[in-house]
């Protein structure tokens, strides 16, 4: 894989260089305008672009702004994208690390963003590789979205929190602390709150007060949406029920576990207090 150069954006040309990439990954309907991006960068926000050698077009970018949540400053990461040919190259993690360094310099301890809970690749990236967690579910957060990744379904989101100063996060990024496999969790008897029944979502199980829970999601949600929109909606609603019930009972999702056959499930544990960053060390 190529050595990427990470350029932090400070001017309008760099912000404008993200537009074609935004259009390619999502579509023209949801583009953030470069003028707004520049204003954000001038006010504590952060944009970085990744370039592969001998390719003048950016291979990926990350964009976020300074925010306040529960009376504390935090960084809200609004967009992360890597162009198709560069997926799986490590660039996405390099961009997140650049964003982390910017935030640590500002004294910020949490970077947060929203994510479609049914996207297994993003779940693996955010929970498995970065070490993020979630305890918040929003129904149809952005309303109807016209772009190619989101159209046709309610835009439900989990609110992902990434504790960038935690030891566990550093270890995750260095690849020293890998999540268990889904087979391991199954062998240990961890109960499924939501499990696939062939391709369909099964019924929610009565599993409350368990020390660990699993919530399975489809292997390839984009492919499923393209093939069977009705089934994709069933998964959207089943995932919504599972997460809302679990978060309502005080659980947080702290891992995404994968099986060798491609299945994937979130691992949930009871959370301590909602006003503190989650201690995920025992997960
Ligand atoms: C999200 C995105 C930036 C991640 O970049 P990437 O290069 O694909 O990320 P990585 O390859 O480093 O990590 C993805 C992981 O998910 C895995 N993965 C891919 N498809 C998967 C699937 N269907 N189920 C489970 N895991 C999957 C990959 O194998 C990889 O894990 P590994 O490194 O252990 O093998 C990129 O895919 C993208 O631009 N997506 C479209 C825009 C988007 O959704 N942005 C929102 C981000 S929250």
Tell me the strand order in the biggest sheet. Answer: 1-2-3-4-5-7-6
Which residues sit in consecutive blocks of at least 5 with pLDDT less than 50?
Answer: none
Question: Tally of extended strands?
Answer: 13
The global form is: globular
Give the ordered list of helices and strands. Answer: EHHHEEEHEHEEHHEEEEHHEE
| C-alpha termini separation | 32 Å
**What level of helicity do the residues show?**
25-40%
Q: Output mean pLDDT.
A: 94
What does the main sheet amount to? 7 strands, mixed
Strand content: 25-35%
Structural description of this entry:
The strands form 3 sheets. A 7-stranded mixed sheet has the order 1-2-3-4-5-7-6, with helices on both faces. Helix 8 (about 220-225) packs across helix 9. The model has no long low-confidence stretch (mean pLDDT about 95). The protein contains 9 helices and 13 strands. The protein is globular and about 55 Å long. It is about 30% helix and about 30% strand. The protein is α+β, with helices and mostly antiparallel strands and about 280 residues long. Coenzyme A binds near residues 87, 120 and 219. Coenzyme A binds near residues 92, 219, 220, 258 and 264.
Break the fold down into its secondary structure elements and pairings.
Elements: E1 5-8, H1 12-16, H2 19-25, H3 34-41, E2 46-51, E3 60-69, E4 72-82, H4 91-105, E5 110-115, H5 120-130, E6 133-138, E7 157-163, H6 167-174, H7 182-187, E8 191-194, E9 196-197, E10 200-201, E11 213-217, H8 221-227, H9 229-248, E12 251-258, E13 264-270
Parallel strand pairs: 4-5, 8-11
Antiparallel strand pairs: 1-2, 2-3, 3-4, 5-7, 6-7, 9-10, 11-13, 12-13
Helix pairs in contact: 8-9
The structure holds coenzyme A (COA).
